[in-house]
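re: the backbone from monday

yeah here it is again, tokenized this time
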């Protein structure tokens, strides 16, 4: 979220101008720091609440396929590809906060991406989701 020349990332207000001034002597370093910070605060609108179906939705943003799940009035986002063999998690059955991969049955916790049951051995990445009015945003 941008507030004038300040940016909020993970609850911390960051002044881009302040960092650039601090690193004036090392211009390449300051450019790298600024680009890194901007990449950390990318919040992407992925759709509207009113257009969200009952189950899950997949969106492609910034080259990533992300599955968004609705549980009650809350939304959760995880990587769309199962870590076992890239099965489509948005097509999986959802029971409570658990999605089951439709290909070989791995189970993941929708709220944090953790593997609950294999054959997958690795968690999927989870993303922070926020809503504002009718809009759904994912922190990429
Ligand atoms: S691809 Fe998901 S369990 Fe195999």
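seq for it, each position gets an aa:
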């Amino acid at each position: 979220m941008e507030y004038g020349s300040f940016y909020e990332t993970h609850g911390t207000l960051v002044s881009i101008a302040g960092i650039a001034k601090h690193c004036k002597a090392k211009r390449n370093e300051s450019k790298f720091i600024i680009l890194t910070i901007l990449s950390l605060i990318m919040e992407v609108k992925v759709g509207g609440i009113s257009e969200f179906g009952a189950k899950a939705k997949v969106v492609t943003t910034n080259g990533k396929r992300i599955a968004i799940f609705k549980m009650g009035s809350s939304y959760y986002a995880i990587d769309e590809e199962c870590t076992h063999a890239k099965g489509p998690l948005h097509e999986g059955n959802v029971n409570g906060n658990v999605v089951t991969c439709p290909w070989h049955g791995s189970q993941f916790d929708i709220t944090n991406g953790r593997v609950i049951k294999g054959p997958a051995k690795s968690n999927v990445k989870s993303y922070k989701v926020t809503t504002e009015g009718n809009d759904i945003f994912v922190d990429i």
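DSSP finds two helices and 14 strands in the chain. Residues 2-41 form one domain.
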